[in-house]
Amino acid sequence: MPKRLVCLAALLALSAGCSDIPADRAAADEVESRPAPSTATPAATPTPAPRPAPPLPQLPRGGRRLVPAYQLVAFVGAPGSPALGPLDGNLDERARRLERLAASYRGGRVAQPVMELIVTTAQGAPGADGKYRSRIDPEQIGKYLAVARKHKMLLMLDVQPGQAKPIDEIRRLEPWLRQPDVGLAVDPEWQVGPGQVPGRVFGRTSGAELNGIAAYLSGLVAKYRLPEKLFVFHQLTGPIVRGESALRAYPGVLTVKSVDGIGNRGQKVATYRGLTTRLPKGIRTGFKLFYSEDTRHGALMTPAQVLSLRPRPDLVIYE
């Protein structure tokens, strides 16, 4: 072969060798040049920590049950009415006096003073709506509650219905009864029917009616997660409460029968025993002392004498 052709063949062969790069190698180089896909697991969204439940409301001196932890001792009254009891005015001084009195009731329990404020008072005249009762100014309730809270006391709102329906008077008090340190008392001696005048006849109620009030209070306790609610009904004689055997305890409500006997010590003790010997299950007892009436009949019973009563009164009221 001529020398020129030999050189030309050599050049063609070299050119072909230089361009003969496999296609799969080129593709591989391209793949290697790309950034590798991320294999990291995406960060999980953090679960928020559960919020702690708000603390449950407590009684003024701690806890959520009244008995058997506390011995309740009360003053009763209304603003500007000394005949109705010692809580007629000068509330801070009366609160300090009540504190000292409550501390004298020893016997293994913590003293819990109670301010019993008469918010609805039966009267001998019909009034504008013919219901034979008057109502306290709501601002006065706030004033008494502020003093009670200052001294870590319970406030108990007392209702003398006259011719009004007790539950109607009580529902008006709901803004206060929703509070953890406000209880209720009803005085059926002053609850009269149509054509009757308070003070001329003894009023009356029934076990079924008292159950309805206790059930209403129990509903408030459950709805607002309240501590045990104090509910007191006053009783002077047996006929004031008809069908008493129907009475029963309701969740979250401490129902107390306060025996308001009048006379010398023997008479008061006899009345107390007579009204508490067949007490329905779960109903507790209270005992009232009258500074004026009891003194006229002898002498005011001492705390030791009151605590010797059986059953032991969970509530002692001074009027």
Automatic annotation (TrEMBL):
Record's compositionally biased regions (Low complexity): 34-44
Region described as Disordered: spans on this chain: 27-62
Stretch forming the signal peptide: 1-18
Keyword tags: Signal
UniProt keyword Signal, yes or no: yes
Annotated Pro residues bias: 45-58
4Fe-4S keyword on record: no
Protein name: Lipoprotein
Organism whose genome encodes this protein: Kribbella turkmenica
